[in-house]
Each structure stands twice: as C-alpha cells, then as structure tokens.
Amino acid sequence: MNIVNLLSIVCVLVSAEARSQETMKPADSANRTRLTDFSEPHLYTCYMEMYRGFSKNPKMGTGFLIHPRVILTAGHNVAYYPTGRVKQVDAFFGSIDDSTYRAKETLRLRRRKNKFFKFSYCMVSTLSRDFAIVILPDSSVYKQLGGHYKLDVLTSERLKERTDSISLTGSPMDMSPHEIWTETKSGFGVYDEKCIKACLYTRPRNSGSPVWYHYNNALYVAGVHSRGNTVTCCGTHLLMNQKVVDKIEKWCSRAGISL
C-alpha cells in the first residue's frame, strides 16, 4: 500500500469519527429517572449477572425481551473471551433491588443452543457486531411480564419519521446493582445506517440496554446500547437495521423460534 492510499484511509476514518461526534455534548446524569414500579418499559428490561469462566463473581449488564422467549443484549456481554465463556446468566425483569423484581430466570448457556453471538467477536469487536441473543426455555417469564419490546427493521429515515425522541433504560454502574434507570432525549443522530448517537447518560453495566421509542401505542426497539464515551458519558448504540434484524431472525430460527 502506498502512502497516498494510506493517507486516504486515515482521512476517511477521521472524517467518520468527526461526524460521529457531532451530537456528542456532555450528558447529564440528573436527567435519569429510577424505575420503581412494575410498568413499561421496566418490566421488559432485565438486569443481568453473567458468570464467565471459573469466576464466581459475575459481570453485570442489561438485556431486554423482544419475543416471549428471546432476550436481546450486547454481544460483549455473552461472547467468548480468552478469560472464558459465559456459562450462566441470571436475568431479573422489573428489577428494583436484590429481593424485589417481577420475574427471574437462571440459564445455563450453550452456544448455538440458547446463546448466539457473532463468530470470533473477541477478535473483531466492532459496533456493528455487538449484539447477541439468549433464548429462554419457555414463555413463563413473558406471561408474568405481559409483553415485550417490538422489533422492526429501521433506517435512519424511518426512525426519524416515527419519532423525534428516544429513550434508554438499563442498569448503570454508578447506581446500586439491580436498579433500573431510564432517560428520554429529544434529538439524535444516525450515522452510516448502523450507529445511533444521542446525549443519553450511560455507564458500564448499561451495555445491552434497549434504546427505544413509542410508536402505534407500543414500545419499539431503535437500537441496543454498545459503548459509551468516558468523557461525555454519551452512548453509542447499534441501530436495528436490516442486517442486524436478519441475523437475529436467523439465530432465532436455529432455536426453533419465529420472530
């Protein structure tokens, strides 16, 4: 590769990063509200404890129900790493504290059986690959919750036609474990038809949180939270575009589920 081509690639990457920072004003943690009742979107969102390798101390994150038997979360929550695979996950729906929640499911995980993520994610951990699903054994949790987030294919144009505000609901690291907090923000940007950026306050443990919006009297998924800016605390979220939804449907099909 000659120097001209190399500089061209660098310029493209810098330009993309600059565009992705356009909406990145510092987020305000005071805009969040703690959810303490069993209502939407609280019920459909779960605080997750994931046991990786031989560790007895769980990693923590967030997930959410998109089907009576399907939890969607961030890929890095359950993907394989050299530190070990995630063997078990405890999911607490409508979680208020460590003893108060609407439903709990403990799952022993097996890849391509009830756990699906992008192949070799630990080696190629890009935003566009940062999603995964966990399959519940039956619909008993769903029956306790009474509903789930709706999943639909989105483009930037379609999302902006449907809503001018988005919300993020999850379990942030700066709050006590099991607590679920939510925030709604007017204005957001969509970049390269795969990345949603908004000044929604996020911290570690928000990974896998649903980014959602109201449409036709239902809660629809706009994206899944992937990572946050350590300076501004603004989040970057994977858009539910055609490629992502197709992959989720393919994984579900392998588990005998039709979305």
State the secondary-structure class: alpha+beta
How many individual β-strands? 15
Helix content: 10-25%
Shape: globular
State the separation between the terminal residues, measured CA to CA. Answer: 45 Å
Q: CATH homologous superfamily of the largest domain?
A: Trypsin-like serine proteases
Assembly level: single chain
Beta-strand content: 25-35%
State the CATH architecture of the largest domain.
Answer: Beta Barrel
Order of strands, widest sheet: 1-10-9-13-14-15-12-11
- Rg over CA atoms: 18 Å
Number of domains: 2
How would you describe the overall organization of this protein?
- The protein has 259 residues and is of the alpha+beta class.
- It has helices spanning 3-20, 75-78, 140-145, 156-162, 242-254; strands at residues 33-34, 45-52, 59-67, 70-73, 86-93, 103-108, 115-117, 132-135, 165-170, 181-186, 189-191, 195-201, 210-215, 218-228, 234-239.
- The chain has an eight-stranded antiparallel β-sheet, with helices on one face. A seven-stranded antiparallel β-sheet has the order 6-5-2-3-4-8-7.
- The longest helix is centred in the N-terminal third of the chain and has 18 residues, at 3-20.
